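Appendix B, Record 12. Input sequence as logged:
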Amino acid sequence: MPRGSLVHRAHNEQGRAAARNAVEGKAPSAHSAHLGAGSVPRSLRQREKPSMFHTRPLVWGFTVTIGVLIALVLALTLYNLGSVLISVFAALFISLGLDPLIRWFQKLGMPRAWALVTVIALIVAMLATILLIIIPLIIEQVQQIVTTVPQQVAALEKSGWFTQLDENTGGLVGTVVDWVQKTIADPKFWATVGGGALQVGFAVTNALSSGFFVAILTIWFVATLDTMKTAAYSLVAASKREVFSGYANRIMDSVGRYLSGMVILAFINSVFSVILLSLVGVHYAFIIGVAVFFITLIPLVGTVITTAFMTVIALFVSPTAALITLLSMLVYMQVEAYILTPRVMSKAVQVPGSIVLISALAGGTLAGLGGALVAIPVSAGIILLIREVLIPAKQRQ
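Logged structural output:
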């Protein structure tokens, strides 16, 4: 065989060996080092295993399609179960809010079993009070609102201060009141209200059934909260279980104190509002107090909203009543901010005002008033987790 062909063949074998070494990640041998890196094609050195998209595109397409369909089915299922999931989360949060009350009874020397029985009895008594006393009062005062609003509007037009205000605004206020009266006298308006009332009736029925479900589920969660915690902690690895349970207990305790504190503050605000409106002469103060209780569960903005709302309602009685209501609520807001809140919320997580507003807005956009109420305790838990876990970990690094 000619010498040139032998040399050419040797060079080819060395090139193939260098290419295999490059693909397998091996260093070139000393014998083939003289060939240089330029002898190994770049395509061989950068060759990778082809993906399923290139080798089996049909299988890849079916896999992606099935994954998308499963995701859509899960999303549709969660959407249809939205009310049930909201009820479950509401019951869970209420049970966390009642847990500090159970521990308070335990501090008084009561065994936990009797403390649970006492709290459950209080829940049942509260439900009975709502069904037998509060709901009939609400229905009665709604009827009063329907019958007295036209009379109050007429009396408002005849008052001297309203006439002066109408003249100062160039008749704008009188035009608005006339439009309201014509709208109320229009039969089409009442037909629309009738259809809306029917929808409201269905909504009230659904709310009552959901409320009953939440109440029963809350009683169950309160009675089995420790068992649920133990079962959840058992899913964590044994090496990390103690640390995880410690952080989880602190978060749940803080959220529970936050919820119970907000309920106490809202109840005090509601009672004060009912007493104040009754003193200034508002006939349906009780139903306004019920609305105040739920609105003031939202910190910062809740009291401001109820103050403006109560001032407008008192304006139908007299300007003096509205002024007294406004000044009294401004004084109460200072008392709540500097006396009540520090005492009630001393052991809860302190949530910055900006986080409260953002959480309330996001939760309200997603799930209405209930979402706004739940979003703030969730933010409190996240803040505690960041303070106790994330920041110390970053400092250790």
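DSSP finds 15 helices and no strands in the chain.
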